[in-house]
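FAQ

Q: What does a record look like?
A: Structure on top, sequence underneath. For example:
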């Protein structure tokens, strides 16, 4: 058990670093092992030339345009990252088992990826699991983390928000186990296991501990789904007992939605099953400006995938040069921090926040009239403000 735990939560230094088995990027540890591993684990470059290779999956909708923004800003900031680009899309006929295997092989080699939204068609064509979900399962990307943080200088209904949503994303309602039992009757199974419920609960409490946060809220519907959500809630309560310094509370999902709209300041870290997390991610993103401004990331014990917090393809904006690159750029900045490229991470995140705070260049979703290109240009101009 100890060896398994050590493998799952390797090392966590300052900042948001999660499990990677090569030495340079940050990794995640339990409190029992963190000091010893930190002493033994010295940072070394992963490549002889000091360049990090990252898998890039542009995805659908405005994803390719957002990835172009990332590459332009990285180039201007002289970031030592090379992207291995793979196009995977079900709606653009660029999805196959062979292509999925190529993406997986790249990720297994690089351990880190940045990804756009891979849109899932609603039509049933013989396969229930989408390629996006299959990618998560094959990599065991069990923890999705969305940090909902107000942007300085951009006023919304609620300002100065700072909360984190942690979502289990390998089971629950998204288990893709559906069948027609009799004509006109569909059974859709929701899978909840003790192993994965305890794993995501422990992840949430470890995150709260390392980030010096004071409270974890478990979101559920155990009053109705007494066995499924009841098991999830029980696991959270059991894990909470191991962290007496962190306040623990529970909240029913429908009440949580209302409370987030009325008084989001009461929340710190929220942990929840798959579907609830998908809904709350989008609701919370709306509190601070929408899908274009909130970054997100997904973790397994070995891999880290960085993406937008609210997964929206924004298909009607394709080719119109109006997409907001903020969320993807902030996610890319988090990725650089994960790779221990602190200087470049700080440079890019501060440039993005500086542009938004000045208020002169804002895309339409933020009430402005600037194009995607205008925003990228402004960010690159603000990478070195002392030289201007």
């Amino acid at each position: 058990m100890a060896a398994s735990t050590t493998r799952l939560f390797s090392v966590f230094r300052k900042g948001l670093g999660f499990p990677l088995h090569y030495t340079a990027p940050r990794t995640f540890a339990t409190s029992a092992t963190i000091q010893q591993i930190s002493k033994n684990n010295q940072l070394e470059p992963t490549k002889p030339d000091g360049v990090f290779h990252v898998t890039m999956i542009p995805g659908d909708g405005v994803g390719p345009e957002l990835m172009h923004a990332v590459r332009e800003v990285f180039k201007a900031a002289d970031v030592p990252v090379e992207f291995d680009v793979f196009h995977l899309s079900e709606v653009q006929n660029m999805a196959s088992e062979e292509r999925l295997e190529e993406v997986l092989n790249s990720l297994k080699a690089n351990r880190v990826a940045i990804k756009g939204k891979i849109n899932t068609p609603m039509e049933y064509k013989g396969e229930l699991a989408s390629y996006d979900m299959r990618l998560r399962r094959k990599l065991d990307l069990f923890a999705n983390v969305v940090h909902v943080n107000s942007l300085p200088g951009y006023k919304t209904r609620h300002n100065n928000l700072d909360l984190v949503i942690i979502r289990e994303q390998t089971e629950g309602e998204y288990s893709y186990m559906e069948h027609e039992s009799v004509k006109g009757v569909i059974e859709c199974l929701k899978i909840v296991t003790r192993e994965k419920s305890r794993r995501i609960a422990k992840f949430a409490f470890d995150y709260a501990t390392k980030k010096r946060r004071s409270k974890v809220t478990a979101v559920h519907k155990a009053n109705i789904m007494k066995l499924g959500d009841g098991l999830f809630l029980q696991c959270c309560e059991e894990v909470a007992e191991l962290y007496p310094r962190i306040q623990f509370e529970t909240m029913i999902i429908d009440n949580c939605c209302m409370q987030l709209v009325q008084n989001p300041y009461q929340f710190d870290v929220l942990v929840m099953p798959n579907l609830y997390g998908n809904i709350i991610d989008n609701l919370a993103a709306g509190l601070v400006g929408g899908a274009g401004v909130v970054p997100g990331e997904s973790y397994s014990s070995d891999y880290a995938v960085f993406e937008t917090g609210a997964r929206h393809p924004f298909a009607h904006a394709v080719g119109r040069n109006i997409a907001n690159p903020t969320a993807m750029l902030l996610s890319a900045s988090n990725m650089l921090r994960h790779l221990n490229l602190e200087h470049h991470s700080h440079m890019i995140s501060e440039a993005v926040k500086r542009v938004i705070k000045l208020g002169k260049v804002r895309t339409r979703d933020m009430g402005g009239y600037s194009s995607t290109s205008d925003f990228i240009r402004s960010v690159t101009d603000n990478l070195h403000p002392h030289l201007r």
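Q: Is there anything notable about this one?
A: Residues 1-48 have pLDDT under 50 and may be disordered.
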